[in-house]
Amino acid sequence: MNVRIPDALWASRRSTAFTVYLIACVVLVALNLRTVFSSFAAVLTEWTALTGMGSGAVALISALPVTVVGLAAPFVPLLARRWGTWSALTVGLGLIALGLGIRSLPAGDALWPLWVGTLAAALGISVGNVVLPVVVKMDFPSSIGLMSGIYTMTICASAALGAAFTQPLLGALGDVRLALGAWALFAVLVLLVIAPALWSMRGLVGRVHRPSPVSRRRTR
Fold this sequence. Notes:
disordered C terminus; two-stranded antiparallel sheet; 220 residues; mainly alpha
């Protein structure tokens, strides 16, 4: 019987060096899952001064990512089953990069780049939140606990990263939009780093043979 699975179980067929590389990929992806929130919060005063955004809009834009992440999460497994976990993770990271880039567009005091960019980035975060634990379970079956701890710790570090470095970026670049857009560049660089992982999975996503219950009974 042929059944569709997200990715083939291939952990036993890879080298130690490639395993280390995959761990680095997981860490780098996780580092992008909270910078959307913390980077904006770090320059909120400068942003409101630039755009004149009121307190009501601030409250709404703060609630938007969490709401979108929650609403989109149930649909993410469909994407992972259709394309595979690493492909879905790449799509999520691409949405984060796109959203961060849109958010930093020079549009005067217009707020549409902020809304559209935050929406796209939140969709990407939802994909990462759902798929990254699946990647850990499938690609690190013998060290699920350790890897789960690593990516959870890294997600927390992601929030600290955005909070700690956005203000220095603002000081160096002199523009609040550029300071926020720098995180889009970081996401793009991570996309380039994980590209070999995606390429390595190209022949391992699809239909694989699994013995039917009848055939298993006959072999007993």
